[in-house]
Amino acid sequence: MKAAWYEKQGPARDVLVVGEMDDPEPGAGEVRIRVAASGVNPGDVKKREDAFGIGMPYPRVIPHSDGAGTIDRVGAGVSQEWVGRHVWCYGAQSYRPFGTAAEFTVVPLEKAAPLPNGVPFEQGACLGIPGLTAHRAVNVAGPVAGRTVLVQGGAGSVGAFAVQLAHQAGARVIATCLSERDREIASGAGADEVALIDDLIKDRLHALAPQGIDHIVEVAFAANISTDVEVLAQGASIAAYATNAPTSEIPVWQLVFINARLFFVGSDDIPVEAKLQAVPDINHALQSGWRGLDIAAAFPLDDIASAHERVEHPLGPGRVIVTI
Question: What CA–CA distance (Å, rounded) separates 163 from 173?
Fold first, then answer.
């Protein structure tokens, strides 16, 4: 099969190789997917760069955890009825060496989800990490129906998904954004209110939620924690899935006085049962009319280095995918 891989970490053009490898075969409980589109997540880029100082987990890595395509072969214990089905997958390169930047990928059956009718493969390749992270961040503190949820960065990939999933779950959703273009994305995902981030953001959030915010989905923990603690209701919660800085001062006493709960969400290690609960909700969002995430750029597999560079230096909102 044709695939992209790296055997050392570093800049995309220095380490990414495109060539031929043996076709993988599914083991017991696994399916093989003929990949049509492969999603490029910031985490995929960070792994290739060794941004977290973990090093090479395997001698050779085919990048990307998310993708979509058609199941063409199944392993022992998997019904042949799966052959020919269109699916999206997640976790292909999570604690595994070979991801979706290839003509074929192999994943456990539970990591392959039916792709709803009418949803293109390109959109399916965008569902995994953003959708699972958003679902966990929205629901980790408990049901949000009838509660006020603030999504910081409501136009990003996880943010827009969080807006949609919280809206779908019956919450009143407030989103923060950086621009009018971002406002359109968050509103289209289901935000009831959108506030542009500026020096008056705390006042605006107090006006939108005078009784306080029940739960916050946080994209920039270090930058926003001072705002978050000012607008939380008593007994409220924060779920942080990213930060703008690796260390942050936490206003402990302010959080103590309001009996706040603080959660951190890492997509690779979301509990299995939470991932299985997320899949039907993600599919339902698309089946209910939400058009999903914008795709900013698509690159052929031969130009995967450009895809990684676009994720590193985005020209605007939207996802980047590699077509196989």
Answer: 7
Tokens 């044709």 found at: 2
Domain count, the chain: 2
Look at residue 185 and tell me if it is in a domain.
yes
**Whether the predicted pLDDT of 2 surpasses 90:** yes
DSSP label of 41 = -
Report how far residue 300's alpha carbon sits from residue 323's, in angstroms, rounded to the nearest whole number: 5
User: Got the DSSP string for 47-92?
Assistant: HHHTTTS---SSSSBB--SEEEEEEEEE-TTS-GGGTT-EEEE--T
Same domain, 198 and 180: yes
Q: Which residue has the tokens 């969400």?
A: 265
Does one domain contain both 30 and 47? Answer: yes
> Is 28 inside any structural domain?
yes
- Quick check: 99 and 62 in contact, CB under 8 A? yes
Residue range 139-162: mean pLDDT, rounded = 97
Is 276 contained in some domain?
no
Share the mean pLDDT of the chain: 97
Q: What is the pTM of this model?
A: 0.96
Per-residue confidence at 218, pLDDT binned at 50, 70, 90? very high
**Which residue from 25, 95, 161, 318 is spatially nearest to 111, judged by alpha carbons?**
95
pLDDT of residue 225: 97
Residues 71 and 137 in one domain: no
